[in-house]
Amino acid sequence: MLLNKLLRISASQNLSLKKKKILLKSKQNNILRLDVKAVKKSRESIISKTKNSFNYTRILGVVSAANEADSFLPYTIPKIIQQIAGMGMKGDIIIGLNHGFECPKLIQCLKLLSNLQIIHLYTEAKTTNNIPARIFDNIKCMGEPYYLDNIYPEYSQHRIFIVHQKVSLHSSGKIRVLGDIYGSLLLKSIEKGWIPPEFVVTFDAETQFLIDSKYSGVESKLDANGLMLIVNELKKSPQIDILSTRNKFVVYRKSFLDDVEILLPDFSQEVPPIHLFLNAVHGRFSGYKWSTGSGIVAKTDAMISLLVIISKRYPGIRIEDVQLTILAYHAGFGFNISLDAISINRSPNIDERTISNSLKAAWMEQIYRWNSGCKSLELCYGKHNIIPIVDDRFPLFGIAGTFDLFRLLMESKKINLYTIIETVKSLMIAFITSRMIRRKSSDNPDILQGATAKASW
């Protein structure tokens, strides 16, 4: 009698749990459906306003900056300008200085370049965390807001727009300054008649666009025009709207450029185990197919529509590159990852420490922040909707997959007993550490919406 009662209670609880899961999945599907609908509507509006005509002589670039960015940008911006010029095009590069951050070393270096116009812009204070601030050409933010204008190719030069974002309660965070750039400067300029470039390149302050070749040395890699490669790939593939590089983590070291101290990649240093693993799998295996914010070339209308909606609806997102890939996938946008073009992303040295987090190691904190963002997207859209793009679990490969992974990890090493043992050891450390970080981050997902959403770097 008692056993039957217990069985009935257990069956009732299981049924209740199943209903809750079904309701949660339905809610997550609806959130995704509404976001996708908004992105599509936004893109249709942009295409309608531009009459599907674009500027084919220029390329748009967007980068947000904070923290150590002034140690990277004096090298990366001139390099990207050089790569754009190598394609026979001109660049409109927008640099968003987040939350009062300034880049004096960058300004100093840009003044030394020829055929370059520098335009300083200023935002008014953000009134809420998800509404783009208006942008002006004067520090007092008086008069009419600033809008981008159309220029004739024969009179054109490269243009650098430096957007100084005013410090305010709601301004801190990468997505907050991106919201101002995409939702205010770019979108409003299109509404005023600006014809944007066909393509936009998004990158990080430390990004360098290189060509991945296991047969080339470091010097030839640094000289390679990876940006030209990925732009040409996109031009040849009209069905693709968003084309990402593969992400490659690299440790950076101090160097000097015209007596200015900067940070440059040091390919000779070993990256931490998880970063080594991510270098091998990104773009190649299921669950690692997100477009990396360190290097994307996309059709301008597609990228603007995605970032406008994301910044407006999710002011707490810190991995907007992963979210835009998920939305692009479900919106039916064509996207791909180039296996030949890479963009390098800074990895902390394995011995680098931090006192701001209980994890201590800076590289572990970097992965922890990323996992916390992934967990928030899983809660928002449901694992079933994001797993083709991103999976924060350490994968269990089959025999063929394990062989491919090991081959990729050994690709740049001399094969001997020592390197094989070291590679296996790194893989085991990555596995154990990944599980530990995943447990911690699962308890503290990012808050994406509302007044308590924080989008700090």
Structure overview:
The chain has 457 residues and is an alpha/beta fold. It is built from 13 helices and 11 strands. Strands 1, 2, 3, 4, 5, 6, 7, 8, 9, 10 and 11 form an 11-stranded mixed beta sheet that branches. Helix 2 links the parallel strand 1 and strand 2. The longest helix is centred in the first third of the chain and has 49 residues. About 1% of the residues have low confidence.
Largest sheet: 11 strands, mixed
Mean pLDDT over the full residue set: 89
Strand content: 15-25%
Measure the end-to-end span. 59 Å
Helix proportion range: 40-55%
Structural class: alpha/beta
Continuous helix count: 13
The total count of strands amounts to 11
User: Could you give the order of the helices and strands?
Assistant: HEHEHEEEHEEHHEEHEHHEHHHH
Sum up the overall morphology in one term: globular
Entry summary:
This protein has about 450 residues and is of the alpha/beta class.
Question: What keywords describe this structure?
Answer:
13 helices; alpha/beta; eleven-stranded mixed sheet; 11 strands; 44% helix; 457 residues
Question: Layout of SSEs?
Answer:
Layout: H1 2-50, E1 58-65, H2 73-86, E2 90-97, H3 104-110, E3 116-123, E4 135-136, E5 158-164, H4 174-191, E6 199-203, E7 209-211, H5 218-223, H6 226-235, E8 242-257, E9 260-265, H7 273-281, E10 295-299, H8 300-313, H9 320-331, E11 335-347, H10 362-381, H11 383-386, H12 399-409, H13 417-442
Parallel strand pairs: 1-2, 1-6, 2-5, 3-5, 8-11
Antiparallel strand pairs: 3-4, 6-10, 7-11, 8-9, 8-10
Helix pairs in contact: 1-8, 1-9, 2-3, 4-8, 7-13, 8-9, 10-13
